[in-house]
Design goal:
The complex is a heterodimer of chains A (188) and B (220). With 188 residues, chain A is α+β, with helices and mostly antiparallel strands. Helices cover 52% and strands 21% of the residues of chain A. In chain A, strands 3-4-5 form a three-stranded mixed β-sheet. Chain B contains six helices and six strands. Classes of the chains: A alpha+beta (188), B alpha+beta (220). At the A-B interface, helix 1, helix 3, helix 5 and strand 5 of A face helix 2, helix 3, helix 4, strand 3 and helix 5 of B. Strand 5 of chain A pairs parallel with strand 3 of chain B, so a sheet runs across the interface.
Chain lengths: 188, 220
Amino acid sequence: MNRRTGRGNRWGLALVGLVLAVLGGLTLARGLLGPSTPIVDAGTRGFFAGNSPLVWWVVAAVSVLVALLALRWLVVQGRRDARTRLRLESGPDGVTEIAAGGMAHAVAADVEASPAVLNADADLVGPRGHPEVRLRVAADEAAPIAELSEHLSRVTLPNLRDALDRDHVPAVARVSLEPSPATQRVVR
Amino acid sequence: MTRPLPPEEPEEVRGAVPADGAGAHRGWAEAVPPRDKGADRAAVRAFRPQRRAPAIVVAVLLTLLGLLVAAETVSALVGSPLRWLPYDRMLAWASTTPWSHPLVLAGAAIVALIGLALLVTALVPGRPRMVPVRTGDPDLIIGVRPKSFTRALEHAAEEVPGVRSAHATLRGRTVAVTPATSGWDDEGFGHAVREAVLTRLAGLDPVEPYQVAVNVKERR
């Protein structure tokens, strides 16, 4: 998941939708309310003939721009922001980097320490300097969810903040609830 | 046979927890996170649909359209037109067709409707793909899979004596629970199921309040 992609998609769809709605609406209004002249009349021909070839270069430039923007929009859909290395520090003496995979394992193990958690998996994501953590957690169905959120917020995240030396490390957890293996359900 | 409970104000999760709710958690300590409106809002927003499918369709079409127009105009400008589009015929058609031609009007209406549909897709938040739960920590967002959410409530209903099986579905902000029973003690039974589901719901602590509707199904 990438929240920036979601926001960008909504902006892009709104912009294209607005352009189409306005164009369609104006054409409809022109057809229903305006004088019944041909779509391309002498005035239109005169405009294009008078401004040729400049107007065609403008059309070409705009269409290239549209194609490039749309292509970029398409490319960001596949944006995966999982990182392989995290930079902790960079200065004149060099940079400190750690492998994100090892860190993610440590985070997952930390999450699994909660009695409410059956299984956990973590990914470190986000742009350079702003790491975020994505968790997939299978939690015990019988445990109150507060047990899990307490553990994440009081144990896992502070540990991670210390390790990464950051004041804030946002976390998003997707939780599935599984029947706890210890409970025997009675079939009536 | 499906028989709805006697009419009753649907109860919201908060404030409707039975006093003996703690017993349902079998030894789990009750830890209620502090309320944080900002954290709640962020949680709801994080799981909104991303509108990926319509974005991909529109982006592909725009790319193709842009490339086509660019190729046609540039090739004509440098003196060797590609003529992938029959634009002489298109120009002839447009020179003789008035704005009020039914085909033009229909086309314009379709374009306007597509535009409005895209605007709606962009502006309507859409149902979250996860059920956001309360954390009280602005840095921590937790969502429960809807399937897990309803299954947990089904299991809570199934623990009520007399319930053979239960089915729960999410309809907007309402959890519809259908317990199947062999048919005894109608009214009290429905209430017991509701209490059990509400208790479990309070334990899950969703950001958005859910109402519980119980429809008892009798099986003989």
